[in-house]
Amino acid sequence: MVSARHSLQTKLTASFVILILLISGLTFFYTYGATKSALKESVQDELSQVAGIMATQVNGDTVIILKPGEENTTHFIAIRDQLVAMRANSNEITNAYIMKDTGNGIVFVVDDIYGTDPDAAHIGESYTTGETSTIFEAMKSPVASKDFYTDKWGTFMSGYAPIRNSAGETVAVLGVDMTADKVIAKQDFIGYTIYLIMGLSALIAGLIIFYFSRTMIRDIRKLNNTAEKISMGDMTAMVDVQRDDEIGELANSFSRMVTSLKILMSDDENKP
Amino acid sequence: MSQLSENVLKETTVYLGPASKKFLERQTQAHLNSLQFDNLEKQHIDELAKWVGISAGLLIGKDKAEDLVKKIKLL
Fold first, then answer.
1. For residues A42 and A36, what is the distance between their CA atoms, to the nearest angstrom?
2. Which domains are seen in chain A, by residue range?
3. CA nearest to B59 within chain A
């Protein structure tokens, strides 16, 4: 009796499971990478679109007159509340704010968390991160961050769009943020789902292979047992394998050979 | 060897292998009045099929032997 370790069944099942895992693994990495990239592009599109829509709702003529220290004026509060109301329409957006270019750099004009969060930016507070180049780009048309960036408020991906005055000139930029956690959570969900599907597929495929190899090996063992009995002198042993495949053909050939052997042996026995 | 003997041998070899001729000779000599298998004729087929069924059944099992008998009877 062949040990389980050296059995054809073990070797076949293990080989197929390894093959399936290898193919699944490569597919997983490719699919996950492609999905991650597609998801990022989709988030970027969504952010720039949301920023674009929100920017058209803001009055650029009012934004431009706000000066540092005017955080308690009705104009400021009205725009801030407008940002809060618009931001509330989207579950994905965590911050909305307005910035402008003073010629010496980017500064905040209205931060929607002003009055509710001590970390909120004041009017005129300068903003200097690697993201400023994207904000300058947004003076022309809506854009989104190329990648995640980190500032003192956290790690985000943002969308920006120009705010225009009544003359159609760009006077400021409206920004909306989505936290990295939300994007990463979406990526992780997709990753886990793919991982789960592939894991289950490998498991089911492994079980199917195990089942089929078991029936195959069982019949090979029957043939082997018959050969063993005949080789030990038991001429009553018969081949009991009924299959339509190559193993069935082998069993038929083996059966013919054994039958002939029996005929020849009985012929010899009958000779005087 | 007659054409009929050749055909019977051909069908039997599928089931009993290369010793089929010895087997068939033994059947004709023991049960068909010492007939030489090579001289087999149509009138002997039913009797030969009967004894092939009995003897082959002991070697290859009843089901396979019955298949062989049917094929011999059709020759």
1. 10
2. 26-186 (3.30.450.20)
3. A259
Q: How far apart are CA A170 and CA A61, in angstroms?
A: 10
- Domain span holding position B43: 3-73
Q: Which residues of A226-251 are buried (b: 16+ CB within 10 A; e: fewer)?
A: beeebeeeeeebbbebeeeeebeebb
Query: For residues A49 and A230, what is the distance between their CA atoms, to the nearest angstrom?
Result: 81
pLDDT digits (tens, 9 = 90+) for B24-53: 999 999 999 889 999 999 999 999 999 999
Beta-carbon separation of A256 and B15 below 8 A:
yes
Q: Which class for A48: exposed (0-12), middle (13-18), buried (19 or more C-beta within 10 A)? A: buried
What is the ipTM score, two decimals?
Answer: 0.78
**CB-based contact, A262 to chain B, within 8 Å:** yes
Interface test with B, best of A253, A257, A260 (most B CBs within 10 A): A260
Burial of A125 (0-12, 13-18, 19+ CB in 10 A): middle
Whether pTM > 0.80 for this model: the answer is: no
Pairing of strands A149-151, A106-111: unpaired
pLDDT at B72 over 90: yes
- Assess whether pLDDT exceeds 80 at residue A86: yes
Total domain count, chain B: 1
Q: pLDDT tens digits for A35-56?
A: 888 888 998 999 999 999 999 9
Which residue is listed with tokens 């943020």? A177
- Give CA–CA dist A163/A156, Å, rounded: 21
Pinpoint the alpha helices (H) of chain A. Answer: 8-57, 60-65, 74-88, 132-137, 180-231, 246-270
